Amino acid sequence: MSFHEYLHEKAEESRHNETMAYLVFIAGAVFFIGGILETIMLTQNPNWFLLIPYRIQSNSGSLLGLTLIFGGLTMTIFGIASSISSSRDRGWYMQELAKANTMKQSTNKPSVKFDQNKKNK
Question: What is the pLDDT along the chain (121 residues), one digit of tens a residue?
Fold first, then answer.
């Protein structure tokens, strides 16, 4: 496997990782919103700290809502961080691939230049 093929494979892998990170972010956002909606529906008067309820009733639905909120928040943060990391990696691979292409093109140029103004008789 040449260096050029290796860079293509790594860029493709990084693109795949970035797509998976976006999906984790979306799943985290869905869990987070689901947890908030469940907490609102099951608890009459929750006390909120930003978007996290800190005083809820002691039933299983409220505990599930709190778990969904923390899990969704964690997945959202992890998805954003992983997406940024994969995007930066892909940028580096693409930059190295561009360097390899320019080096390959400079070595493939013919060394003898023909004058097009002269006509063969």
Answer: 777 788 888 888 888 999 999 999 999 999 999 988 888 787 777 667 666 666 666 667 777 888 898 999 999 999 999 999 888 888 888 888 788 778 777 776 655 555 556 555 5
Residue 55 tokens read as 């005083």
Contact between residue 74 and residue 28 where contact means Cβ atoms under 8 Å apart: yes
What global pTM score does this model have? 0.70
Alpha-carbon gap, residue 73 to 59, rounded angstroms: 22
Contacts for 100 with CB less than 8 Å, ≥ 6 apart? 3, 4, 7
